[in-house]
Amino acid sequence: MSSTQKSGLGETSPVMKLHWSPRSPFVRKVMIVLHETGQLDLVECVRNVVGMAQPNEQVMLDNPLNKIPTLVLPDGQALYDSRVICEYLDGLHSGDRLVPRGGSGYYQAMTWQALGDGFLDLLLLWRNWATDRGLAHDAPDDAYMKAFSSKTERALNALESQAEQLQAAALNIGHIAIACALGHLDFRWECLQWRNGRPRLAAWFKAFNERPSAQATLVRNDEATAAH
Ligand SMILES: N[C@@H](CCC(=O)N[C@@H](CS)C(=O)NCC(=O)O)C(=O)O
By C-alpha distance, which of 36, 63, 29 is closest to 48? Predict the structure, then answer.
């Protein structure tokens, strides 16, 4: 890829670097935003392997927390986390906003985003906790495992009860975060059978998944050995 690209705003802008992985649901949020806003050309994706117990020096040069996504601007400034990056990218295009500007729409979108992101944080912690201890996901005698399971059920039930609102609202960053969390469940947590008893959420997610931006960014494994 060349070092300069058209920004979509009629100017030529240097490419930004995205610390990226095809497995990361948080990176996927950023990729969906880039697809939905027609700005894929602005970003060069650099594969970086990270894990909670596997610090990556290249990533940590730009983000001391070792997290992806991290976006490096042409002048070297690093942006993280996914919320900041998505909002930044949403400010660079002239189409419909994914982060609503103010009002109740803004707070609804941000709360959905917090639910989707928090749900993902929980799922990543749960998997690390279980893997480190060699526990099955439903280990009955571990307080953390029980709590992870209970919070997951509650999060899914909360989403099921809001499925009609999700359906009615214009596409926003909250939808994207929630879809990335559900996509991660399908990728890593098939055992949970989350669709059972949640037909409205399943229908909403099915429709979301038909978007070209969702299809183009489905999480997938590659040859790297690490969590993400
Ligand atoms: N709040 C962060 C979470 C990002 C995150 O947890 N990313 C994972 C990959 S999906 C990661 O980088 N893990 C490595 C680590 O925790 O050291 C965001 O929204 O970007």
Answer: 63
Q: Where are the domains of the chain?
A: 4-90, 103-213
Name residues contacting ligand 1 (CB within 6 A): 24-26, 50-52, 66-69, 81-83, 117, 124, 228
Closest atom of ligand 1 to CA, residue 67: 12
CATH number listed for the domain at residues 4-90: 3.40.30.10
Tens-digit pLDDT string for the chain (228 aa): 333 344 444 455 669 999 999 999 999 999 999 999 999 999 999 999 999 999 999 999 999 999 999 999 999 999 999 999 999 999 999 999 999 998 989 999 999 999 999 999 999 999 999 999 998 877 778 899 999 999 999 999 999 999 999 999 999 999 999 999 999 999 999 999 999 999 999 999 999 999 999 999 999 998 776 667
Contact 46, 17 (CB under 8 A): yes
* Distance from Cα 40 to the centre of ligand 1, integer Å: 21
Closest ligand 1 atom to the C-alpha of 24? 10
Per the CB < 8 A criterion, the answer to whether 16 and 75 are in contact is no
Q: Do domains 4-90 and 103-213 have the same CATH topology?
A: no
Domain topology for 103-213: Glutathione S-transferase Yfyf (Class Pi); Chain A, domain 2 (1.20.1050)
